[in-house]
Amino acid sequence: MAIINEHYDYQRGWEHTQPGWHECSVNVEHIEKYNEIIDWVQANIGKFKRHCRWSVTDKNLLSFKFRYEKDYILFTLRWS
Known about the structure:
By secondary structure, this protein is an alpha+beta fold. The chain has helices at residues 31-44, 48-51, 69-79; strands at 22-27, 52-58, 61-66.
């Protein structure tokens, strides 16, 4: 089951949350795709709450930051 919320430090803001991590964004037209992406992150990124951050940075833009380059590459190969 997908988490239907953002996962980052709201007080610091997106720009200042985990600077230096690997960042990418995905266009999301429908909530179903959002759910699919978040389900995939939960299933494929080890300790995702510790090693990944995400936010809806624009109306249809879902942005991610990954601690490890291998997770970033795996994500971009699947969703970009």
